[in-house]
Design brief:
Elements lengths: L10 E5 L2 E5 L2 H17 L3 H15 L4
Amino acid sequence: MISFQERPPVAYVEHFMGGVLLDGAREVNRLSVVYGELQAWALTPTMSLDLIEQVKENFGDVA
């Protein structure tokens, strides 16, 4: 999402075939809410690294 001082915010959404720039107030607001929810559920960087290390130990070097 991109916010401007003199314009309404816009959001860029990527998908498997490319991406789309959305500028509708309702769409951008909904995406903002969804993004906030995802941030709330996300692990911290340290917790993410710990999880990756745990998975690596449990599965070993597959490659």
